[in-house]
Specification:
2 copies of one chain form a homodimer. With about 350 residues, chain A is α/β, with parallel strands linked by helices. Chain A has helices at about 40-45, 95, 120-125, 135-145, 145-155, 175-185, 195-205, 215-225, 240-250, 270-275, 290-300, 320-325, and strands at about 1-10, 10-15, 30-35, 55, 60-70, 80-85, 115-120, 125-130, 165-170, 190-195, 210, 230-235, 250-260, 270, 280-285, 310-315, 335. In chain A, helix 5 (about 145-155) crosses helix 6. Chain A starts with a strand and ends with a strand. At the A-B interface, strand 13, strand 14, helix 10 and strand 15 of A face strand 13, strand 14, helix 10 and strand 15 of B. Chains A, B: Its cofactor is Zn(2+).
């Protein structure tokens, strides 16, 4: 088969790779129906995260089970399934606490931009959909694998509740789906921080009530103005830089909640500053597996259409174009079809 | 009157200071019944926090109201009262959210090691006790003003619940009262990190179930062993250094809660490390005012005796000896009587 391999900054190749086989008895092999490029793929693509040699890429996926190992009980060949970017046995203490993305058997999926994928811990990682998604549902089902699950975690970790005021830092696909999630959780006011017209439009469609185009201190000042000087109850940090993190912390009220869901790059938080900000801080790799059953339901019932974040669809072999379009912010998120 | 003034490292003087008067109509003047030295007083005493000239000291207090300003309605002369180290109007949005220590009218009390004290925002800051505390109750009532309120916040902010496993980093008075608080909140297992025999004894008396004498990575390893490799549900960080903060973060399970309640000194948290630790983090100046009614009840009813943290009582004029005893760790906490 052929799949995506990152060789270095701005150098993604679509090239021959071995078709995966069952290795562990708990594995499954999936025939990918759709995959995509993640915002986090752009860190190494831009050279901001070191590579250890040529690296197969991709961790968002859904598709049909081709084959399962002999220890797999729940997942069956022929099922249409979605899985998290982090594998989990879904039975260890961390999984039982709802932190499947810190499962003792966690592995990070990293070869999903390909026609076939080996998924370890298949029984704990994969969730079957009720029937095969229609072509219209496919993009939205794909989002549950990471980008929606991560946006949902951002809202959950920031304690979004009915009636609260929420600010979202970052207008990438995760931020946009954080808005959709906050809306689903009943937030009264959702302030999107965005300076790109097409993203503002989607933010409003997903449930944002206000747009702030300023960044940094000016953006924080605008949020303070909008909340009578109090600050937001919940702030979702969906970028991962020092500036965005401080922007999020400063936009929250004392006692408010700040979540951060992308791997921070170059972020250092000063203890004293955090202390006097008086906020709750929670983040990490999103426990997507916990949310998958609910998110699949919401998509299949038509309650939400998170697949709208895909504003470009390409055949998998054009994966290099997909990276380029996202890097240059010509696309919010690119769906790839094998 | 004479009160404590810090001139520089290890230089506390008991000297003439102006007796305080009502300045704002919302002020009260208190005749101090008991005050004490706080662990946080030791940072500037040790030269680890810069001074801006000679600085009157003290922020833990209880006593009898001498006089109130003309706008004070609830607090009356003659009442025995306790107040927080942070003043609050108890009506602003932050106060209503339970974060009185970030009140829009917050001032930090800093002249309480003296016979008289001016307390701004008297109606919002002070809470009368039901009758005058007995000599036996006085020390315990004094703790509600800061050290117990802060230990209680540490347990609350770390989400201590019935049945949980709690670790406490730091065996100073705040850490010890964090243990007492966790016990009151129903924690099943409370692991005290302490290497001092007298403090271990008090920790066990306050409700600790286990003692860990190792620090740093070795201490974390011991906690991991004791929790079957899972980590603690809640960790109370009651020191404020880089080492203690990392120790706390590493001792918590993914999805666990870490609180920090002393002003961090020289603490820098790496975003990526925090992300993969997957913990909740919350701290700041303890909203003591929120807890005062409950804590006063617990003390006056005899349910708790937090005053046991005072292992030395001195007349106020010996305040320099009090600082010395705490600096040299000869005393856990020193009560001062005017």
């Amino acid at each position: 088969m052929r799949g995506a391999v990152l060789y270095g900054p701005h150098d993604v190749r679509f090239e021959d790779r071995e078709t995966p086989d069952i290795i562990e008895p708990t594995d499954a092999i999936i025939r990918i129906a759709a995959t995509c490029v993640c915002g986090s793929d752009l860190w190494p693509y831009r050279g901001l995260q070191p590579l250890n040699g040529p690296t197969p890429m991709g961790h968002e996926y859904c598709g049909v089970v081709e084959e399962v190992g002999r220890a797999v009980r729940r997942i069956k060949p022929g099922q249409f399934v979605v899985g998290s970017f982090a594998t989990s046995d879904n039975t260890c203490p961390h999984c039982n606490f709802g932190y499947q993305s810190s499962c003792v058997k966690r592995e990070f999926i990293s070869r999903a931009q390909a026609p076939f994928l080996r998924v370890p811990q298949a029984d704990g990682t994969l969730v079957p959909t009720p029937g095969v998604p229609s072509p219209e549902q496919l993009a939205s089902i794909l989002t549950t694998s990471d980008v929606l699950g991560t946006g949902w975690f951002a809202a959950d970790a920031a304690n979004v509740k009915p009636g609260t005021t929420v600010a979202v830092v970052g207008d990438g696909a995760v931020g946009l789906l954080g808005i959709l999630s906050a809306r689903q959780m009943g937030a009264e006011r959702i302030i999107a921080m965005s300076r790109h017209e097409s993203r503002q439009k989607l933010a409003l469609e997903f449930g944002a009530t206000d747009i702030v185009t300023q960044r940094g201190d000016a953006g924080v000042a605008e949020i303070m103005d909008m909340t009578d000087g109090i600050g937001a109850d919940s702030v979702l940090e969906c970028v991962g830089t020092q500036q965005s993190m401080l922007q999020a912390i400063h936009a929250a009220r004392p006692g408010g909640y700040v979540s951060y869901v992308g791997v921070p790059h170059g972020v250092e938080l000063n203890g004293e500053e955090l202390f006097f900000a008086h906020v709750h801080l929670h983040g990490g790799p999103a426990p997507v597996r916990k949310y998958l059953p609910k998110l699949i339901d919401l998509v299949m019932s038509g309650a939400i259409t998170p697949g709208k974040v895909f504003d470009l669809t390409l055949p998998l072999e054009k994966v290099a174009d997909a990276y380029r379009a996202m890097d240059e912010r010509r696309a919010i998120k690119v769906l790839l079809q094998p």
